[in-house]
Amino acid sequence: MQHAVGYTSGGGGQFYGAKARLNVWPAQVASPAEFSVSQIWLISGSFGNVDLNTIEAGWQNDAYQETGCYNLHCSGFVQTNARIAIGAAISPVSSVAGRQFDITLLIWKDPKQGHWWLQLGSSGALLVGYWPSFLFSRLGASADTAQFGGEVVNTRPSGSHTPTQMGSGRFPGEGYGRAAYFRNVQVVDWDNSLIPAAGLRLVADHPWCYDVAGGQGGDWGNYFYYGGPGRSARCP
């Protein structure tokens, strides 16, 4: 499992949601045992304490062949909008040195009923559905960490990297039009208000395979580029 992400946590911070714009790519997967995902995570608890809760939403590229219940095949998520087909292909998608297409995702907690809602889009945004409050223990109150970025998972690891792409398959240094991005990265605070994700920390497990680099300013607010090609001259 490889990550190239930005996250904010600690310092007594409690998060009641997260929002970002991320562009969508036709990332190539090298093996049926792998998948590549770009998403938002809201996290509370830990593996070590056996109390980890996560909510995750984004796009991925293996048509759910190996990823289990990221769609509605398992109970839990309650869809409320028939205009959105969860698990369907997103179109159009971005192309290298071509037009860029992104989606806006917002996850937020209803302060009255405690459900976690998923919203798609910015202007004319649609409520897709919600994760009921009874599903969670640690996320019953709030999230400890808000995380954004890419993940590549090999469900049958062989001890070496494959050329499965994260994001666009290009490194962050290639910039706009070539690298995948998250922009306008925000969190929901205790007052149910969207604020910039302060102190966003950028981490890549293996930056010679998949990397992350970011900045702040202008219409993009807090942003970062991420991704890479997997196995290559830099990533043997």
TrEMBL record:
Superkingdom field: Eukaryota
Coiled-coil residues: none
The Neprosin PEP catalytic domain, residue ranges: 1-236
InterPro entries: Glutamic_endopeptidase (IPR053168), Neprosin (IPR004314)
Annotated Pfam families: Neprosin (PF03080)
PANTHER family: OS05G0169800 PROTEIN, PROTEIN, PUTATIVE (DUF239)-RELATED-RELATED
Protein name, per record: Neprosin PEP catalytic domain-containing protein
The organism of origin for this protein: Zizania palustris
